[in-house]
């Protein structure tokens, strides 16, 4: 597997209970991960990546085999439906475009469909063999809801996780692997893609997204780390009971409190552009005239008049959520009253603009998760723990030959 390979030759890299995993299978799956990294992967790191991908393919094979033994099969129509949903999310419902992209990066539609098949088979197996035996009582859920109400106004965190299980024997190797994944993420790798390929938590299928959680519901090690994180920040690997985790803070808000960043704004963008080769002095004079014109605006109905005086362009956007904007701009817009504008911003190359606030629909108070949502979340957590033990048992019972 680690030597020179002929791309036209399909060789067995591993045989899992009689099912062959070829070098081509590994190559195609490695290409998916490599494409998610914005930087070149060194030869040494590529060797490690191939080993990790092989382990993932072995687990995936065991999951499909275990489902088949329970007469659970995932047919091509179901796999294609999920494949089309991915194409819709990333290529505007154009599956041919996604096919071409996968081939262009050295992967294949068949490789991604195989991964989808494994995820669907494992989820269905867990629903049959584990979920029916996981119980969460009404008293437990009511207790959580009571504590949620008591913590109203406190921070809660939307966290992405990449979880790698470890035993006493594998601890050092798993820690090193987690550190390498962390380095790839810091160099621009896609957290969602790495979570789908490497995380052993049930959240892997959704890119590692835990959703919004309170610190009290996290392992103490993760809770401590989250307190000092800012949105968009990575940290890890963090040692937790059972293994290591890499955390990505997607967002933060307050429990049962309306988040002002969920307000929907009506804005007018007023902008000017500069001719090619303009001098800084001439551009500065144009910006000064633009700033003075914007300062004369008396409400949104007056924007077009002011814009015409300096040759500016006006664009209206009536459904813009604050949180969809860059973080620096969010803070500025939150301070504006209707009829006010931001200070001018931009550059000679991109043009200079202001945003004029014409309306604002504030979000309603957040009532938090419902009883059913909380119960479902607690059940998922318990199913995930049992699923990890189930997969470990499958590995222990498997007959695997390596080439």
Automatic annotation (TrEMBL):
Domain of life: Bacteria
Keyword Transcription recorded: no
An MF annotation (GO) of this entry: peptidyl-prolyl cis-trans isomerase activity
Keywords: Chaperone, Isomerase, Periplasm, Rotamase, Signal
Segments crossing the lipid bilayer: none
Domain PpiC: 154-251
PANTHER family: CHAPERONE SURA
Name used for this protein in its record: Parvulin-like PPIase
């Amino acid at each position: 597997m680690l030597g020179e390979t002929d791309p036209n030759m399909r060789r067995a890299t591993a045989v899992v209970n009689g099912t062959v995993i070829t070098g081509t299978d590994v190559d195609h799956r490695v290409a998916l991960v490599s494409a998610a990294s914005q930087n070149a992967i060194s030869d040494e790191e590529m060797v490690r990546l191939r080993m990790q991908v092989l382990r993932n393919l072995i687990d995936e094979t065991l999951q499909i085999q275990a489902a088949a033994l329970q007469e659970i099969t995932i047919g091509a129509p179901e796999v294609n439906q999920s494949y089309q949903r991915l194409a819709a999310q990333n290529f505007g419902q154009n599956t041919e475009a996604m096919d071409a992209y996968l081939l262009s990066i050295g992967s294949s539609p068949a490789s991604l469909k195989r991964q989808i098949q494994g995820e669907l088979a494992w989820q269905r197996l867990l629903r049959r063999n584990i979920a029916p035996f996981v119980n969460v009582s009404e008293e437990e859920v009511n207790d959580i809801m009571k504590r949620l109400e008591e913590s109203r106004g406190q921070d809660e965190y939307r966290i992405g996780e990449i979880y790698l299980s470890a035993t006493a024997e594998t601890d050092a190797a798993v820690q090193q692997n987690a550190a390498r994944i962390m380095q790839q993420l810091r160099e621009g790798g896609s957290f969602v893609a790495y979570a789908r390929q490497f995380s052993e938590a049930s959240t892997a299928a959704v890119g590692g997204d835990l959703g919004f959680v309170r610190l009290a519901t996290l392992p103490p090690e993760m809770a401590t780390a989250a307190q000092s994180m800012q949105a968009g920040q990575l940290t890890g690997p963090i040692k937790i009971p059972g293994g290591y985790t890499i955390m990505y803070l997607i967002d933060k808000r307050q429990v049962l409190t309306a988040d002002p960043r969920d307000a929907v704004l009506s804005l007018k963008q007023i902008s000017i552009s500069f001719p090619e080769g303009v001098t800084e002095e001439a551009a500065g004079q144009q910006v000064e005239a633009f700033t003075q014109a914007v300062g004369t605006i008396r409400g949104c109905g007056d924007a077009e008049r002011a814009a015409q005086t300096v040759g500016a362009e006006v664009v209206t956007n009536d459904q813009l959520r604050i949180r969809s904007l860059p973080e620096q701009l969010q803070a500025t817009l939150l301070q504006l009253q209707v009829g006010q504008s931001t200070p001018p911003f931009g550059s000679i190359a991109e043009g200079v603009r202001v945003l004029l606030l014409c309306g604002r629909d504030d979000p309603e108070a957040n009532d938090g998760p419902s009883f059913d949502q909380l119960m479902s979340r607690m059940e998922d957590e318990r199913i995930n723990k049992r699923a990890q033990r189930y997969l470990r048992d499958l590995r222990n019972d498997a007959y695997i030959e390596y080439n």
